[in-house]
Amino acid sequence: MLIYNTLIKKKEEFKPINPPNVTMYSCGPTVYNYFHLGNARTFIMSDIIRRYLEYKGYKVKYVQNITDIDDKIIKKANEENTTTEKIACKYTSAFLEDIEKMNVKVATVYPKATEHITEMIDLIKKLEIKGVAYNVKGNVFYDVFKFPGYGKLSGKKIEELESGARVEINEEKKNPLDFSLWKKAKKGEPYWESPWGKGRPGWHIECSAMSLKHLGKTIDIHAGGNDLIFPHHENEIAQSEMANEKPFVNYWIHFGFLNIRKEKMSKSLGNFFTAREIFSKYPYGIIRLFFSQSHYRGPLDYDDTLLSSVEKGLEKITNLIDELKKQIEKSDQNGIVPDFNLSDYRKAFETAMDDDFNTPQAVAVIFDFVRDVNKVLSSDTNIAKSFFQDAIKYLKDTTQNVLGIINLEQGEKVENIDLLNDLINVLILIRQKAKEEKLYAFADEIRDRLNEIGVILQDGRDGTDYKIKKKN
Q: From 128's CA, which of 137, 157, 241, 257 has a CA 20 to 30 Å away?
């Protein structure tokens, strides 16, 4: 298996530290808002990589952090006149709900930054002892010029980074590139006690500390978006390798941007859709297939019209599955086994995925398989049940278990959930129009009736959301 390693800028053979075990860390959300579709691409493609490693027989310990203390969270809490804990709790729950809807497998661990403050303080103290961290009136910085390998991930010289880096201006720093390890608490901000006074950790030290605790000093794979290469991942390397005196990560995997009209989708540009919005319109299979049809390292342009063609492709797969299930019910083992070598399609799928997780080629193999099985089905031959069972197993192993596009066991259930979500959203829209027309009693009745059947509406600044109350 070959993986493109951002650190060396080329593909190399994957050799885990302790096979068949694989340690994998994927950067998770900063929980101050619903994550956008560009973030969803990172989460889904990380999930597919993890799934394929498991398909190959590896035991993956998959860690995805949750940043639950940050400047953005503090700003959001101030805007809504609430606490950072409530903001973080709300959007952590939303994150977990949304990735479940995206059919992303649950991580082995979801470490939260606020639960690892002790580990972060210990790591900063190590860096102080080694002379690379310095304290200025309660603010602790990392001196990047004291780490000889700084810039090796982004591939730039430190002088070039210094002149063009996206860093905040801070007169307390020795150099503009020096980054915060510990931030002195400002009035009204949450804080923790530390050897440097009351404060909170910097963003970069959080991931280093959580990775170290849950995966060890050196890990196999670290994944994240292209925008994290610098400064976040570069700083993680500097901290971790200086503190632990070992390589931090053996394989760095980075995902390309999701663009809207050739521009990166981002909250700062305002040209984004939340994953929650998109998944209220499209089932997860369409979005996962859409992402799988482009290579994870390249950019991808989002367009609603593209999803229509993706939907047709998904229908070809699900239609074949429906037909195969029917044939299994009515056929027997005494039929003819067609001259159809399933192992060729399995080998072709694996060849594609072994080449740096080439999902576009893997999807093409699946569609070739669908086409060729349909040709067999169109014959009038009495076909043995085993052929249909083997065809279903192939789709389960590849399209379900690796790409996560379908769910053979719960197909009908998923469709019913999608229909339920659509109906609830229609009722929310009707209720909103009733309120606009000052039909408040009618709007309240819709809310109350939904509440009686376990659908709880939640009105907020960004509109109305809902949750379904679990039955005991």
A: 157
Domain 304-400 has CATH 1.20.120.640: yes
The model scores a pTM over 0.70: yes
Compute the distance between CA of residue 358 and CA of residue 154 in angstroms, rounded to an integer: 23
What is the DSSP code string of 288-352? HHHHHTS-TTS-EE--HHHHHHHHHHHHHHHHHHHHHHHHHHH--TTSBPPS--HHHHHHHHHHH
Q: At what angle do helices 84-101 and 71-79 cross, to 10 degrees?
A: 110
Spatial separation of the C-alpha atoms in residues 349 and 401, rounded to whole Å = 13
At 471 the pLDDT is 45
Pairwise CA distance, residues 46 & 227, whole Å: 15
What are the tokens at 330?
């009515």
Q: Are 210 and 65 in contact (CB under 8 A)?
A: yes
CB half-sphere exposure, 459, CA atoms < 13 A: 8
Give the containing element (helix H, strand E) for 134: strand 133-136
Q: Are 361 and 9 in contact (CB under 8 A)?
A: no
Instruction: State which H helix or E strand residue 64 sits in.
Output: strand 59-64
268, with CB counted inside 10 A (0-12, 13-18, 19+), is exposed
Q: What pLDDT is attached to residue 168?
A: 54
Which of 299, 116, 147, 138 has the alpha carbon at shortest distance from 237? Answer: 147
Return the closest-CA partner of residue 228 out of 70, 39, 407.
39
Query: Residue 114: what pLDDT?
Result: 97
Report whether the peptide linkage leading into residue 201 is cis, meaning its omega lies within 30 degrees of zero. Answer: no
Mapping DSSP onto H, E and C, the string for 382-439 reads CECHHHHHHHHHHHHHHHHCCCCCCCCCCHHHHHHHHHHHHHHHHHHHHHHHHHHCCC
Counting Cα atoms < 13 Å in the Cβ hemisphere of 197 gives 10
Q: What's the rounded Cα separation, in Å, for the pair 348 and 39?
A: 30
- Domain ranges, ordered by start, for the chain: 10-278, 304-400, 417-468
So what CATH class is 10-278?
alpha beta
Interatomic CA distance for residues 221 and 154, integer angstroms = 17
Q: Give the separation between CA 206 and CA 121, rounded to whole angstroms.
A: 10
